[in-house]
Task: inverse folding
């Protein structure tokens, strides 16, 4: 399993570990990934994802999973999240056609 957020695409980055004597050696900064189950109100189902903790705060701020996926770009999403986004778009178009 890759150490990558399924919604925002956050990955490990590299930097330097600096000792007291200012000797630099390479290190990795890993994202704080958490396993969460988010509820899609429009689809009326739960989705299990492995996302970064800072992305979880953004999801809450934007009004849940549906709001976050509506504003996100397709190239940052995992295949699982992209499928949920497409299901949301499909349902929105079906609802618009039913009203017209």
Result:
């Amino acid at each position: 399993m890759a150490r990558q957020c399924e919604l925002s695409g956050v990955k490990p980055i590299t930097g330097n570990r600096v000792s007291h004597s200012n000797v630099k050696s390479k290190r990795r900064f890993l994202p704080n990934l958490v396993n969460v189950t988010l509820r899609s109100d429009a689809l009326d189902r739960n989705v299990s994802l492995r996302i970064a903790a800072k992305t979880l705060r953004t999801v809450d701020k934007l009004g849940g999973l549906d709001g976050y996926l509506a504003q996100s770009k397709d190239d940052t999403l995992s295949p699982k999240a992209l499928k949920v986004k497409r299901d949301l778009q499909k349902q929105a178009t079906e609802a618009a056609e039913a009203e017209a």
